[in-house]
Amino acid sequence: MGLSHEDVREILRIIDETPLEELRIETDGFSLHVRKVGAAEPEPESELEVESESESEAEVESAPSAEAAAPSERAARADRPPPAPPARPAEDPEADDGLVTIPSPMLGTFYRAESPGSLPFVEVGARVGPETTVGIIEVMKMMNSVAAGVSGTVVEVCCQNAALVEYGEALFRVRAGEVQ
Amino acid sequence: MKRVFIPNRGEIAVRIVRACRELDLECVVGASEPDLDGLAARQADRVVCLGPGPADASYLRDDIVVQAALGTGCDAIHPGYGFLSESPQLAARAREHGLVFVGPPTEAISLAGDKLAAREEARGAGVPVLPGGEARSAEQARELADRIGYPVLVKAAGGGGGRGIKRAADGQELEAVIGLARGEAAAAFADDRVYVERLIESARHVEVQIAADDHDTVIDLGERDCSVQRRFQKVIEEAPAPALSEATRGRLREAAVAFARAIGYRNLGTAEFVVDADSGEFFFLEVNCRIQVEHPVTEAVTGRDLVGLQLRIAAGERLGFAQEDVAFAGHAVECRLNAEDIARGFMPSPGTLSLFAMPGRPGLRVDTHCFAGAAVPPYYDSLLAKLIAHGDDRVQAIDLLLDALEDVDVEGVQTNRALLQSVLGLPDFRAAAVTTDWLERTLQ
Predict the structure, then answer these.
(1) Which residues are B306's β-sheet partners?
(2) Exposure pattern of B391-411 as b/e (b: 16+ CB <10 Å)?
(3) CA distances to B5, B37, B58, B95, B441 from B68, in Å
(4) Amino acid B71: pLDDT
(5) pTM metric for this prediction
(6) How many domains are contained in chain B?
(7) Distance between CA atoms of B123 and A1, rounded to whole angstroms?
């Protein structure tokens, strides 16, 4: 059984809308384990793990700042790459202009939207909170969502869709401030 | 092949950048964050940041390395030494994505990584191996050791490069050590298989440089002696190996080529042997599927660019010379200048180099990535520079190196310079009467 990234995102969306905290499905050659982290928080985080023996193996995670939220849980799972380390702080995170940079947490291909046809996660003018997903970084077919990590308004999109971004490279510039 | 990705750091990244330039290849260095201002990054056509300082989040991520190579339009990866240089996962992943991996076939890397399997392959190819074998239990180990005689070494199948080795002087020690060895092997290499081999007490470490192209040419580029070691780590290396009879030298080189042929080896590699200093017998230890730290001594005596050769072989070129064309001139000695604090048990000594002055002499080569103002980060090995002296004979090379070390001036970190100077001046070393345990015995 194979799953496309779209399938996985769809599953994720459905599960996000349910009150379920954990879901585990196992059939021949296929296992799916989804766990929400910090369900009490305003923006529930979910983790999705897909193991498939078929050719079209898909692994997707959608865990806004999961590194910060649940490092021990992630470190305990040995059969996957280590979690993205927190990106280096920008040289001058709050420059004179009062803008904050959202750095890339890892090297990879940067996607601004969930899938080619979808609207970007955020555009200039969008209001974001620390948990808001602002993009996806793909490393060898592993999708890693990027959380804003800051509250404020997006004033600049620094990288093009589908571009290679380096660890620590500026993805967005945000005017920090409380989201209404 | 047009653009080479170099996911490495330190002097070897600088060395590969230089080799690329000489072959008119573009190069992109993949560096960790603290290495972004390093010499290799400055000299490359482009640098990309792989991740933060700790290697497991940057240089050891084969997924990120391949992504970075593809994303920067590279068509080849030269892994250097250390990090992922002997990772079959990186080689396989790179090749799956159509990249040239500058190294041997993936299967050869896997075989070489399994020291026990490599030992059996060597035996099958008629290459002498030490008496011993796999030990699945303490009883089996004891039975084996009682037969081959003590002392023995317990080695991890997944180890190599001096890691995962324990010594046992008798059956009691062996039983005490075997469980620990298995546990450590499982933790360090995710493979708890260990094997027992007879310990040659008076041993020299001699290795043979192999080169094989895709057109069925397999040759050797002579041997190196790396017997001056501390904790199984090489300190001083030289070529040719001193105090070796011409007959033994010839048989060693033939054995290395035979082994390379038997396993379908390609590109450059090194077959490591232990030579019994008393009897002159030699035994296969392991094969290293990468460029070695000490490759410059071979370059000095053969006049050939080994890193350039790696790139040309990877591009599918013929070696362009035969075994009989390999000639040797003079003697070369290399020493490794490390950021180590001798007074504190050779603890690594990271810091910022406030002064870094290296000597220059005819016949002297210095391979380094360091410069005044550069940081020596705490995440990686402590190698600062390699000094390689080439003379008409061994004594001339040693004296040149000793003289050059006088002019080494490094401030900001502690170095092992004093150790190198004293070793090069000791009568045992100058008389080539050195075995692998000599340095540690001398230090005590």
Answers:
(1) none
(2) beebebbbbbbbebbeebebe
(3) 8, 18, 11, 14, 46
(4) 96
(5) 0.83
(6) 3
(7) 44
Contact A60, A13 (CB under 8 A): no
Indicate if B184 and B298 belong to the same structural domain: no
Name the architecture of domain A99-176: Beta Barrel (2.40)
Q: Which residue of B has its CA nearest to A83?
A: B57
8 A C-beta contact, residue B319 and residue B313: yes
User: Do A164 and B33 lie within an 8 Å CB cutoff?
Assistant: no
**Cβ proximity of A60 and A46 under 8 Å:** no
d(CA A51, CA A33): 9
Six-digit token string for A126: 């969008």
pLDDT at B160: 77
Residuewise pLDDT in 10s, chain A (180 residues): 455 666 666 666 665 666 556 656 555 555 665 555 443 333 333 444 444 434 333 333 333 333 333 333 333 333 434 444 445 444 455 555 789 999 999 999 999 999 988 999 999 999 999 999 999 999 998 999 999 999 999 999 999 999 999 999 999 999 998 654
- Residue B151 is part of which domain span? 131-198
Calculate how close chain A gets to B49, using CA atoms only, in Å. Answer: 5
Residue B146 in any domain: the answer is yes
Same domain assignment for residues B344 and B250: yes
- Answer yes or no: is B279 within a domain: yes
Q: Choose the final residue of a domain: B198, B230, B250.
A: B198
Name residues of chain B where pLDDT drops below 70: none
Active-site pick, B193, B230, B290, B394: B290
**What is the ipTM, given to two decimal places?**
0.82
What CATH number should be reported for the domain holding residue B8? 3.40.50.20
Chain A residues with beta carbon closer than 8 angstroms to that of B64: 106-108, 139-140
Q: Identify residue B158 by its one-letter amino acid code.
A: G
Integer angstrom CA distances of residue B28 from B69, B180, B396: 8, 43, 39
Report pLDDT for B60: 97
Residue closest to B155 by CA, chosen among B134, B170, B176: B134
Catalytic residue check, B136: no
DSSP string, B163-174: EEEEEESSHHHH
**Nearest chain B CA: its distance from A40 CA (Å):** 31
Candidates A137, A159, A165, A167, partner chain B, best to mutate (most B CBs within 10 A): A167
Pairing label, strands A152-157, A127-128: antiparallel
What number of C-beta contacts closer than 8 Å exist between A and B?
Answer: 53
pLDDT value of residue A27: 57
**3-state per-residue secondary structure call for B227-292:** EEEECCEEEEEEECCCCCCHHHHHHHHHHHHHHHHHCCCCEEEEEEEEEECCCCCEEEEEEECCCC
A85/B33 touch (CB, cutoff 8 Å), yes or no: no
Say if CB B189 and CB B158 are below 8 A apart: yes
**Contact by Cβ (8 Å): A112, A120:** yes
Q: Which residue of B has its CA nearest to A78?
A: B190
Instruction: Note whether B335 and B235 are within 8 A (CB).
Output: yes
